[in-house]
What does this fold into?
Amino acid sequence: MKKFDWIIVGAGITGSALSYELTKKGLKVLLLEKDPNYSNATRYSYGGVAYWSGTDNNSIQLCQESRENYHNLSQELGADTEFRELDLMLTIPVDKSPQAIRENYNKFFIKPQLLTPQEAAIIEPLLNPNAISGCLQLPHGHIHPQKTNDAYQQAFLRSGGTFNYEEVTQLLFQNTTITGVQTNKEKYFSENVVICAGGLSHSLLRNIGLNVNVYFTHSQLILTPKLDIKLKSLVMPAILNRLDIEEKSGESGIQSLWNNPNNEIISDVMEPGAIQFLDGSFCLGQISQIITNPHTKPNEENAEKIIREEVGRILPQLQNLHGKVHHCLVAFCPDSNFLVGKIDNFQGLHLFSGFTSTFVFAPPLAKRFAVWATEDYEQMPSLLF
Ligand SMILES: Cc1cc2nc3c(=O)[nH]c(=O)nc-3n(C[C@H](O)[C@H](O)[C@H](O)COP(=O)(O)OP(=O)(O)OC[C@H]3O[C@@H](n4cnc5c(N)ncnc54)[C@H](O)[C@@H]3O)c2cc1C
It folds into this structure.
């Protein structure tokens, strides 16, 4: 019988970081991932670490722990995460008042600096000053998302963890106590299972009758090969329409739309952004849709046209870069920064998903989760659905 202390479902950044931290505590951990090609949110992410985005004591502390952690993480994991500090340039549309937009950022513990278009173009020469009324500048962390994920997985394996490419098809229970998981290949047993399945967490838990408020967007973006042109900062819009739609999609009237597997709740929200990785490749994004069927494949041609036009307005030299459109699901939780804890409906079942700024919050919370699991299970937050 294949028995483990903990089974983790999903090997994006949440599952990989959590598996590593649990193994480091001496636990016998199995990590299961269905997709060897990693067409997931982690692979297609910008990799920004928003350590400025804490709003209360707890989130501020997590941000600070996260920043410190990244400074040492490559050394700890024995592989380069490509962590660096860079400028986050949040562009403000020409028809919006820069001062009014800046007010929205007063809730964060690090406040942005408001720049005129000309000042912004000195810091980021690829910006088109005529396309913006101003820019908010923030200190930001940056990692290579897939390399960081790989680094966690390699360190997890070296610490004695087990990692299999298998799809979890069913969660196994005896009455209301979890006993393990069934995959497309075998059964594995454990008294503790954590769902880290990103955009698929919602349907995995729905299959056992839980209506969990972790939903997902369909996101499309363009990845380019290595190029000579140089983007110095991470550029994103100061108004994140996606966060508004994520909040709305959790409202009670809209929640019921998730019961139908083919509803299109919100279509084509474009947020022009760009990052260049240290190897010279770019990620240009992103267009988001909320369609309740996770297996829908949104139209690639349409996405490519919109992303190129909108990124091109703000960063004209990036409009026609050679590149390919990709699609992934991005988990979100409408009313909090993340859902982390034990699911009280079933003994032994846990959730670690729905992060707003995953790269800042997931690594320090994975450490805390491992402490709760080994030293203070009573302190682990309880979730009831
Ligand atoms: C264009 C873009 C830019 C972004 N930029 C940022 C940013 O700058 N900063 C930031 O913090 N966040 C950013 N994000 C969001 C961030 O990438 C995600 O929130 C994060 O990667 C989610 O990690 P995850 O582990 O929850 O999910 P995922 O990375 O999606 O991983 C979940 C994994 O679970 C697996 N899985 C699902 N079901 C099963 C099953 N039944 N059995 C086995 N395996 C299963 C999936 O195959 C997948 O590999 C961005 C996202 C996009 C698309």
Summary: The chain has two domains: 3-81+145-213+336-383, 84-142+215-332. The CA atoms of residues 164 and 205 lie 21 Å apart. The radius of gyration is 21 Å. The longest strand covers residues 264-276.
